[in-house]
Amino acid sequence: MATLLMSIIDVYDRAIVDYHIGLSCESQHAAKVLQRALWKRRLFESHNLPVIRTDNGPQFISHVFEGAVSI
């Protein structure tokens, strides 16, 4: 079984803000990693909402992830 890596990259400074490494990468993992990345960059308290760009993989188009990123 392969090990999977998902990373949240800030396109402004190209830094990896947070990541997940595991035997699976499901929507709840993607939502948790995004939440941690937003906390690390203190974007949860910003009036300007960040733009989230994904590769449209199944974990990013799920109802779980969509609910996590909705306003």
From TrEMBL:
One of its GO terms (molecular function) is nucleic acid binding. InterPro entries: RNaseH-like_sf, RNaseH_sf. It comes from the Bacteria. This is IS3 family transposase.
